[in-house]
Amino acid sequence: MVNRIDNRQYSNSIENCSFVKTVLMIIVVLYHSILFWAGNWFSAVGTREYIAPVDYFSGYLNTFHVYCFVLTSGYLFSFLRFETNKYQQFGKFIKQKIFRLLIPYFFVSVIWAIPIGQFYYHLSVNDVLYKYLLGIAPSQLWFLLMLFWVFVIVWPFSKRIHSSKLISFLFAGIFYIIGIVGDHLFNNYFQIWTACQFVLFFVLGMKLRDAHSNGKLINLKWYFLVVLFVFDVFLYILKIRFLPKGVIIYTCVEIFIELVLNIIGALLAFYILQAIASKTGNINLCNSKWYMTLAKSSMIIYLFHQQLIYLSIAIFNSLINPFLNMLINFVFSVSVSVIIAVVFTSNKYLCFLVGEKSNPKIVKQ
């Protein structure tokens, strides 16, 4: 079911990561576009129609999309640090990540997320301080804080992680446990406990790249991927439908199953999207204008899409079919975010505020 592959077969794996991250960004937007009908998301709009299949589908998307994104970031980090001699100085590296992640976090919070949150939720000063300044629940921007701390945590140990599988396993496992325990006992200030959990997926991506660069990357056959997908879906159904609630052991079992779902889902998504990127690259799909626009705009789409979905739901909820509303949410948020991206990337000062460069390259870390 698996075999070692010639390194040349995945010679474009780094370039393919742009496709992987772009598709994952689209999946995140899709996830938020349908989430309103899956539960208590965007509670500022009172009446909603609960749709169980949407709840299950969105829940499944949530088991892998961000986890695969962090895995891909670890994959690229290992390539850049150990194969291109970048990221060699910790201070310079962290400065880059402040520009890339923290400045956009505060800028978009102040000019976008907080004002729109205030409009819909009537946030108090304490709410703003709690949710955004302390980073407890800063809407979609939590990801920026989390990824920044992942970089801070991993870099000092990255050489040992690169050189030792045992240290990698222990390092990732210890931080995952720290994240789980910390999240249950303390407030998640600045998303630090979430970051500790995501270290595991970042390290997994690093080791995947290390195996690739050593010519030892495992090629999963399509039928094995199908079997793995079926097993993944089975675990998801087991978790949401059949595990008993209200017993102490349930929490431990749920955490374990959730971790397995996240790992399998992240790996499946990475392998499948890498394969699709290789195929679509051969027919020049990845060089098409629409794809290039999405790829260059992906960061800004992520920064701005959620509040656009709020607006779309507020306008159309209860007036049109929910599935049509979901489609409108998706198309509207992506389209307007792309327009915002075009505006911001046309000016070097605006680019700086959203962590971009003028005429950004598609492959970036």
Taking the sheet with the most strands, its summary is: 2 strands, antiparallel
Instruction: Provide the spatial order of strands within the biggest beta sheet.
Output: 1-2
Number of helices: 14
The succession of helices and strands, N to C, reads: EHHHHHHHHHEHHHHH
Radius of gyration: 20 Å
Count of DSSP strands: 2
Global geometry: globular
- What is the domain total for the residues? 1
Gap from first CA to last CA: 32 Å
Unreliable runs, pLDDT <50, ≥5 residues?
1-10
The helicity comes to over 70%
- Compute the average pLDDT: 90
Q: Would you tell me the structural class of the helices and strands? A: mainly alpha
Question: How much of the residues is beta strand, in percent?
Answer: under 5%
Textual characterization of the structure:
- This protein has one domain.
- The protein has 14 helices and two strands, in the order βαααααααααβααααα.
- It has helices spanning 13-34, 52-61, 65-83, 90-121, 125-133, 142-154, 158-163, 165-185, 192-213, 222-242, 248-282, 289-316, 322-345, 348-353, and strands at 2-4, 218-220.
- It has a two-stranded antiparallel ribbon.
- The protein is globular and about 55 Å long.
- Residues 1-10 have low confidence and may be disordered.
